[in-house]
Amino acid sequence: MAKKQKIFKPKARIPRGLRDMQGPELAFQKLMLAKISDVYESYGFDALDTSAFEYADALGKFLPDDDRPNEGVFSFEDDDGQWLSMRYDLTAPLARFVAEHYDRLPKPFRRYQWGSVFRNEKPGPGRFRQFLQIDADTVGAGGSQADAEMCLMAADCMQTLGMSGDQFSVNINNRKILDAILAQLGLDAQADDYDMRRLTILRALDKLDRLGIGGVADLLGDGRKDESGDYTKGAGLDKISIAKLTDFVQAGRDTRSETLKALAEIIGDSEIGVAGLEELTLMDALMQDSGDSICFNPSVVRGLGYYTGPVFEIELNIETEDENGEIARFGSVGGGGRYDDLVKRFKGIEIPATGISIGVSRLAAALTLLGKAETKATQDLVVLLVMDKTRLVETSELVKTLRNEGIRAEMYMGDSGMKAQMRYADNRNARLVVIEGEDELAGGVVTLKDLQLGQQNAQNIKDNEEWRASEHAQTQVSRPDLAKKIKEILS
């Protein structure tokens, strides 16, 4: 007798570095997107949605291997032999869009967009390979007033989400000043390996908040081995160069004006450094009424290679316990900067641009831990129990009536009895259940049971006698008055 072939059953598992979300978490993110979008729109930005896939050569980053360009991004080869990549941010697709439709777009072009982005990088605590961002960018504006606007708008977004001025900061630096420091170290901007060496140094500096000054010094030197044993090759700088860079990133002072003076002393008469300092000086003048939440901070670097001028990060200045019970800072929840060369890759001419990106997933997690997540992100739910299946049509019509009145309602769709239906409503975090059994039909009424009030009452009741004497968090109301009564309770 032939052996019965075993049926393959795939293991239900989510890929490493990804996560599932549902219910309140998604509702809160939806609310955050709405609030941030309102801020962006109040500044005059219009919405745009670009594809989640781009031709790999259009991304202009993470592409060291023409045969398989998948370092940093997720890529696959199309049936016509061309490589496609999932977007790693929302800026590179914007540059492609502007270049493709440049002649018909208003200049400057101001857009905002939200969507998931994908990074083929090593995942870790709080670091996912897919996460949600919401960006705003101005393309075609070369003045520092556009950069200052991004920083002011970022601060407005944080305040709109309930953050006070001492709980966050918008930290600003300038890539031109960084390039001046690199020139002082002897890096030749005309050398073939300059872009790669520069990016390696920038990425090392960008890890200051996570690794500390010692870890950054290791990455600027020979390299560093992390706790898992993975080794990251360093930038290969000597001790003098490392000291100059670490001194620079720690040159921030208490006020923007004091930091400008400190930076002026460091850059000397460097032409590109002075140009960067002048841009920060103008931004300072444009942000005079911004308060202390917007700062100049030389430690802000940004790990992406396409920035050409001011760069900024939104940082939460609040400590919490990490997964090991140790005190940790939330760190950056957004950032951006000026990228005047990104569209140039397509058009051949410099088109100035600047933008800000807020990491919605990371910020939502931080706000939740801080107790600032709005749990009432969706309407209260009303569940209508099915007591008699011969009356499904009547119950369905009652649900429609409630929905037409703007009430979030559903009819139970399972096959269980009343107790199981009540458990279902409780598991759904429903606020109210509507019961229409034989007694209610005979009296021309329906019973409304307030599950939230019932839970509150139960916490204060000591014994069965007190329970029988108490109100059971339910009331009866006529069918025509049901919607009105529900609105009264929910209000």
Automatic annotation (TrEMBL):
Major enzyme class: ligase
UniProt catalytic activity: tRNA(His) + L-histidine + ATP = L-histidyl-tRNA(His) + AMP + diphosphate + H(+)
Residues spanning the signal sequence: none
GO CC terms in record: cytoplasm
Primary localisation category: cytoplasm
Residue ranges of every copy of the Aminoacyl-transfer RNA synthetases class-II family profile domain listed in the record: 1-368
E.C. number: 6.1.1.21
Gene Ontology biological process: histidyl-tRNA aminoacylation
Protein residues bound to L-histidine: 89-91, 119, 133, 137, 302, 306-307
Similarity remark: Belongs to the class-II aminoacyl-tRNA synthetase family.
SUBUNIT field: Homodimer.
Protein name, entry field: Histidine--tRNA ligase
Chain's gene name: hisS
